[in-house]
Write a structure and sequence with these properties.
single chain; 7 helices; 0% strand; elongated
């Protein structure tokens, strides 16, 4: 089971997708957890998600951690499929609960009250690619895949 979780090939384009997605979500997660990059920090984000959006606190914390820890996991290529899954769920909920009614496009001109969902679709597509194909080259998953011994449920037959 673990071997299938970390199984990946040496595809450098998968690594590029994974790294870019990881950096983007680490930055968004750092806004929410640490207050970096102009973010509200942990308490401000939890307050917004629970108060304004009505998300239960446990789910708000999971969403914050999916972005922050998922971003770190993707950057290093560690348990990338799990990290990508968290981001897919996070972005699907954000798309459906917050951004769907704002239309497709981001608020590039600054003339709308909120953002559309095009970013969320891109993030979901990239994360789904990582979930299906794995972390790619230069990843801890690839290292774990090649160093973990294979467990055979039955001993090899004796010769003699």
């Amino acid at each position: 089971m673990f071997r299938k979780l970390v199984q990946t090939n040496d595809d450098h384009m998968l690594a590029v997708l994974r790294l870019v997605l990881g950096v983007v979500f680490f930055a968004h997660g750092a806004q929410k957890v640490l207050g970096w990059f102009g973010g509200a920090g942990y308490s401000g984000t939890v307050s917004y998600l629970t108060g304004r959006l009505g998300i239960p606190e446990v789910l708000a914390v999971i969403a914050i951690l999916a972005e922050f820890l998922g971003g770190i996991g993707l950057i290093f290529g560690f348990l990338s499929r799990i990290a990508a899954f968290g981001i897919v769920v996070d972005m699907a909920v954000a798309l459906l609960r917050v951004h769907l009614h704002n239309g497709f496009f981001m608020n590039w001109a600054g003339n709308k009250a909120a953002e559309g969902f095009e970013f969320h679709l891109l993030a979901i597509a990239i994360a789904l690619t990582v979930m299906v194909r794995g972390a790619g080259a230069v990843s801890l998953d690839r290292v774990l895949q090649s160093t973990r011994p294979v467990h055979h449920p039955y001993p090899a037959p004796s010769r003699g």
